[in-house]
């Protein structure tokens, strides 16, 4: 039981922490690259700028964890619980977030390029300014999600809150308030006012 322990900046690279209880732990700046954290409990942990590159976090509990600027590049995160987590500025490039619970998570300016969010629940999450370039949102829940200023170039939408179509040259992605065609991103109102 490692509850509330202080392991800030610890080298835990490749560690086997399956099912470990690290709830409330101070782990900012720690290195969990390629670690096995399946079913681990890191709820309410402090994980600022922590490295999780290539880590296995399937079904881990990170509810209300503080993860701003954490690096999850290429991490295996299927079924992870990140409800109400702070992922501001986090790097989730190429992360597998299928069926992840991201309800009410703060992902302001998070980098989700090429992330797989198939069947993820992002209801009421904040994705303001997030990079969802080429992200897969098929069958993802996005009810009341804040997508203001999100980058959606090449995003595969869920066809409800985020719709997408692929043409020979460009992907067109739109929400109720924004439209992105290639690298051009405008409000729907601005787009309607363009003249040919």
Computed over alpha carbons, the radius of gyration is: 17 Å
Q: Detail the poorly predicted runs.
A: none
Shape: elongated
Total count of strands: 4
Straight-line N-to-C gap: 65 Å
| Secondary structure category | little secondary structure
Biggest pleated sheet: 4 strands, antiparallel
The number of distinct helices, counting runs of at least 4 residues, comes to: 1
Summarize the amount of helix as a percent range.
under 10%
Q: Strand portion, in percent?
A: 5-15%
Order of helices and strands: EEEEH
Strand order of the largest sheet: 1-2-3-4
- If you average the pLDDT, what whole number results? 95
Q: In a few lines, what is going on in this structure?
A:
The chain is largely without helices or strands and 196 residues long. 3% of the residues lie in helices and 8% in strands.
Structural write-up:
- With 196 residues, this protein is mostly loops.
- The protein contains 1 helix and 4 strands.
- It has one helix at 188-193, and strands spanning 163-166, 171-174, 178-181, 184-187.
- It has a 4-stranded antiparallel beta sheet with strand order 1-2-3-4.
- A hairpin with a 4-residue loop joins strand 1 (163-166) and strand 2 (171-174).
- The chain is elongated.
What key phrases describe this protein's structure?
little secondary structure, 196 residues, 4 strands, 4-stranded antiparallel β-sheet, 1 helix
